[in-house]
Amino acid sequence: MVADDLKENVPLQKEAKVSMAPTELKPWPEFIQKRIDMWDRLMAEYKAELAQKDKQPFERLEMTKEDLLEMFKYNEFKVRIIKEKINTPKTTVYRCGPLIDLCRGPHVRHTGKIKVSFNSRHMYLTLSFCDIWYSSIFKAMQITKASSSYWEGKADAESLQRVYGISFPDPKQLKEWQKFQVITPNMYNSKLWETSGHWQHYSDDMFKFEVEKEQFGLKPMNCPGHCLMYSHQPRTHNELPIRYADFGVLH
User: Fold this and answer.
1) What is the bridge-based pairing of β-strands 58-64 and 90-96?
2) Gap between the Cα atoms of 80 and 98, Å rounded
3) Side-chain half-sphere of 216: how many Cα atoms within 13 Å?
4) Contacts of 239 (CB under 8 A, 6+ apart)
5) What is the pLDDT along the chain (251 residues), one digit of tens a residue?
6) DSSP one-letter code for 40
7) What are 182's strand-pairing partners?
């Protein structure tokens, strides 16, 4: 689903090439294209909801190695995989909507079986399909980040974009994972205090010191740390107000 959405549904990724689909040991898709940013990831999750409503069928096809090489000739990564990994006269591919990819399967009948839901803080997917390695453990999922990687882990090979996610047996456990206790540091850089507005009003009453030519101050309040917690992911005004509990030490 993530591969489908980033390749076909996110406008910024129209020219992306899916190099490596998820496997048992690497449950993330890899692409060659520009950097995948937070907006792309959120849009991929949002588009998954639209695909679910369309009930796009998963169609299993058996194809010869020659036909596959012709089909994927635009994608040098797929060509390498077909030449190196497929040792039988025929193998299977799955088609779902506009995407077709190498896969052993099985899948559910259509994307309508994939439950998609949202909460006020994160867009997340609740999946209920069964694949050769997904089994029944992949029912609540969230895309967490994207990073660079190399084809087959070789530093002299092409640079790719890897998409990471996390999954849980049910949405409740996902929500629990999204919430965790935070204890912020005892001192902050003055730049953070300036951003929060405290430096302009309270700096004369704070214990200040210099570290590597940077001005720091012991914290008499937790608010600046909450600025960082708030900004660690995209936000909308619909989430406000947000309340944080911080059990840090104040001076």
Assistant:
1) antiparallel
2) 22
3) 11
4) 120, 121
5) 444 444 444 443 444 555 555 444 444 444 444 555 555 555 565 566 566 566 778 888 898 999 999 988 888 888 888 898 888 889 888 887 777 888 877 777 777 666 544 333 333 333 333 232 333 334 466 777 777 777 777 788 777 777 777 777 777 888 888 777 777 888 899 999 898 888 899 888 889 999 999 999 998 888 888 888 888 777 778 888 888 877 778 87
6) H
7) 246
- pTM for the predicted model, two decimal places: 0.46
Domain positions in the chain: 30-115, 187-246
Whole-angstrom distance, CA of residue 40 vs CA of residue 16 = 12
Nearest to 2 by CA among 149, 79, 118, 101: 101
Whose structure tokens read 């084809």? 151
Separation CA 190–CA 50 (nearest Å)? 45
SS (H, E, C) 61-82: EEEEHHHHHHHCCCCHHHHHHH
Top-level class of domain 30-115: alpha beta
